Amino acid sequence: MNTVHLLEIEFEHNGQKQIITPVLLHDEQHTILIDCGYPDFLPLLEKAAQKHGISLQSLTAVIVTHHDMDHIGSLAALKRTYPQIEIIAYESEVPYLAGSKKSLRIEQAEATLDNLSPEEKPHAEAFIRFLETIEPAHVDRTVTHQEQLPWCGGIEIIHTPGHMPGHISLYLPASKTMITGDAVVASSGKLEIANPQFTMDLAAAIRSVQLLLDYDIQQLICYHGGLFAGDARPALQQVIHMYTTDEQSEK
Predict the structure, then answer these.
(1) N or C, which end of the chain has less CB nearby within 10 Å?
(2) What are 9's strand-pairing partners?
(3) Which pLDDT tens digit goes with each residue over 155-214?
(4) What sign does the dihedral 4-214-67-184 (CA atoms) show?
(5) Does residue 87 contact residue 137 with C-beta atoms inside 8 Å?
(6) Per-residue pLDDT tens for 1-41?
(7) What's the domain of life for this entry (predicted)?
(8) How far apart are the C-alpha atoms of 138 and 154, rounded to whole Å?
(9) Domain residue extents for the chain
(10) C-alpha distances in angstroms, 247 versus 143, 165, 206, 212, 250?
(11) What is the DSSP secondary-structure string of the chain?
């Protein structure tokens, strides 16, 4: 039996209540975690998995959608605690995860410093220092666009750049489930581009949403927003329409 578990993790960050939704895939032989939260989230992940009757001792792999801090913060700790796991990421993400290249999010934050007011700059500098504390992790296996992983009924890798250049989404054909990472987020019954002001390439992000429409999606899971309650196809089309209309109105 192939099962998809949503690990809804509620926490406070910067004084605000937030929820993230890592996903756990489980069958008779494999347990695969998709993204793993901020630093020090290992106990929260373990507790969330236990609610579904699964111990992270059974983890066989962690698939990383991209190297933002809320997706990889506990990656090194997971590997240290459960050394049997295979860390999997898109090929271009490897140097950022390993720490041999500066995080793109750090570069982005640093580029804003000269334009910030004296009141804003300390917050940005503190954010950069926090990003610099993210512990590097070695990637055991790289994946490419449309690669098929054989576990848990099959997993198709979809390269969905925009939010970050090496961002991936995952399609599970057995259950027609799309796991979007941050390609889109679910909010107030709608789908949206995740943090468009911080998206590395908005035009690429919109093309990635268009790419998701090539798949037969019966359920769509966002890292921010969890399981989307509506019909995914028209909601994705609305995202494309909204941002394409905005682009045209600016010309």
Answers:
(1) C
(2) 20
(3) 999 999 999 999 999 999 999 999 999 999 999 999 999 999 999 999 999 999 999 999
(4) negative
(5) yes
(6) 569 999 999 998 778 899 999 999 999 999 999 999 999 99
(7) Bacteria
(8) 24
(9) 3-99+136-250, 102-135
(10) 32, 20, 11, 20, 5
(11) --EEEE--EEEEETTEEEEE--EEEE-SS-EEEE---STT-HHHHHHHHHTTT--GGG--EEE-S---HHHHTTHHHHHHHSTTPEEEEEGGGHHHHHTSS--HHHHHHHHHGGGS-TTTHHHHHHHHHHHHTSPP---SEEE-TT-EE-STT-EEEEE--SSSTT-EEEEETTTTEEE-TTSSEEETTEEE-S-GGG-S-HHHHHHHHHHHTTS--SEEEETTTEE--S-HHHHHHHHHHHHHHHHHHH-
In the block, residue with structure tokens 């500066």: 102
* Span 67-81, pLDDT tens digits: 999 999 999 999 999
Section 47-57 average pLDDT = 96
Query: Domain 3-99+136-250 carries which CATH code?
Result: 3.60.15.10
Tokens of 88: 């999997």
Token pair 């054989």: residue: 150
